[in-house]
TrEMBL record:
Name of the protein described by the UniProt record: O-antigen ligase-related domain-containing protein
The entry's keywords: Membrane, Transmembrane, Transmembrane helix
Keyword Transmembrane helix: yes
Keyword Transmembrane: yes
Coiled coil: none
Membrane topology (UniProt): Multi-pass membrane protein
Principal cellular location given in the protein's record: membrane
O-antigen ligase-related domain ranges (all copies): 179-319
A UniProt-annotated Pfam family: Wzy_C
Native source species: Blautia wexlerae
Amino acid sequence: MLIKKNNLILLIYVILSAFYTSPLFDLKLLDYVLYLLFLFNWCFILWGIFYAFKNDNVKVVISLMLIIVIIFMVCMLNGTSLRQCNVILTLIIGMYYTTSISYSKAFYQLVSVVGLVYNLLALIKSPNYFVNWEASGQATMNPNTIGIMNLFFAIIVNSYIHLFVSDKRKKYCYLIYNAMLLYILFVYRSRTSQVAFLVFVLTFILLKRDILNKPKLLFIITCGLSIMGTIVPLLYIAMPKQIMDWIANTTGKSYFSGREIIWGRFYTSLADFKTLVLGPGLWRKEQYTSLWDNGRVYSMHNNYLDIILCFGLIGFIIFTLFIAIRIYSLSKRQILNNYVCLSGYFTFMILGYTENNFSYAFFVMLYNVLIGLAIYANRQMEV
């Protein structure tokens, strides 16, 4: 079983992310793992720039250099730490990296095995995990995070389950595996992951392979999903309580999540044009996300608002246009050929409407892995 060096690096990243988000471990023991993942992201940024030069693509090289300069300038103007550039540059340049390399069959098999092991571990540890997590003062991994990681691996396993079973048994394996996953998401009370899994299943069923070769439509979908990420919070705030009560009942959680307060405060601050364009700055995060008198600062619970917080409308437009143009380009060259991973990528974009996983070092490259596999997964696999 041979695996390419660049595939091995991505596999190690996935394993470390799974290790960090495992339900087994105490968060205090994993600071070094998180730091290592953060360094990995900088490496992916550098390798993305290297591949742009290697591919002799002048337009991409100039674009990436301009993006880096603009992002750094925005940070200096609004006071956001340059460390935060790791996130948006990984989302953009890391995506270029994963869509510029090729993948071996061994990588598909190994990353699927990692996913199955993670799913089984989550299943074994699921009884009373949520209750124990609350009782511990939230000192172990957040159940929502575990749910999201299970969802990521579900997309991978659903794409490559045929590598492990015959065609006759494939249908039954799909049913058993996805039923197990749904059970895990309910036991961990991961409300966002439950909705995202439903979106993935619907997308999986409704999307036709023809969409892979429709670059203009994919461009519109990508831009639309990103823009909707800034609109959904407004709808959430205005949503009738009865609807949220019904959704909340699937997890046993109360309707109140604090998101409506965080988003309401944030949108109010954007009334100032300069703040909207350049972003309030990460240093002002506490003003929006501090909910109780416990000194804790929460996340924005929305990927797109978090980008605007740190990099303003400028950063949001750069992010949206780059990923949309990249997907358009890949489709136009007719090398997109795995609609399961592509629908998984779109699912994670939707998941970002109520979660803030872009800002976590252990999640940010996983999006890029999905779009990378959407390119090469169903080609003639290299052994």
